[in-house]
Design a protein that fits this description.
The chain contains 9 helices and 10 strands. The chain is of the alpha+beta class. Strands 4, 5, 6, 7, 8 and 10 form a 6-stranded mixed beta sheet that branches. Strands 2-1-3-9 form a 4-stranded antiparallel beta sheet. The longest helix has 16 residues. The termini are far apart.
Length: 279
Amino acid sequence: MSEHLRTALALAASRIPVLPLRAGKVPFGNCPACADNACGGRPNMKTAGPCACPGPCHAWAAATTDPDVISSVIWQRAWARASAVAYHPGGAGLTVVDLDNVDAIMWAREHLPATQTVATTRGEHWIYFGAMGSANGVRPGVDIKSTMVYARWLGHGTGTPTALPDAVRTLVVTKHVAARPAPQSIAVPAWAGGGACRHRTPAYLDRGIAMAEQRITDARSAVHTTVYRTFLAVLSTHGRCGCLTDTHIGRLFTAAQAKGETARHCTDAWTNARTTLGL
């Protein structure tokens, strides 16, 4: 049994989904049965859920905790050629803050709570309990690895994982809010009665945002559609008077990501809703 296979089985026993990586820290390519999406699987790994192929064919989606799969003949062939073991953080209920350089590490020490820390080639992985949407480049030298991505297993490091802080979730929300046109830049038509915003009472807007968050949270199916329709409803009511702030929009994005939506989908859904309404 190879060292990588032993490591993978030990991680799987701890309910951490694993997969082999080949040279260059990249996943194994599709097998012949999965080539060109012939299997109907997920060659681009954009869809949540496990891979049905018996081989490690679909990157993070192939990650598993099943020891029979991990030690199967087809996987053993991959382990024999593997250069590293990877795992799916989100599948284990974890989030990895990937700090790529000294400046990023110094920033984390100042702004994030202490947690389990693992040394990497150029920096550190800070590991927290709790899954969220993944995103690269949330600030210089900082990536977030959780759902629908893989991370290299580099050992247990030091310390104990602590709860995922809001400061990490905000990094992803802030990145994608910054990527869209700022709400206050929307051309706002004058309202009757002197142009005063009819939502100037904070309670009215806060109640609307809270109801929108709850609608997303309560979704049991068709989450994509629910998120879009909720964004559309919020914008149809509040989008033309200039009262929405980044904080309000961030709350909606966070609620959607808690249901498994990616930050990219949140941004696209928001942009599409604005376009539909002519904002």
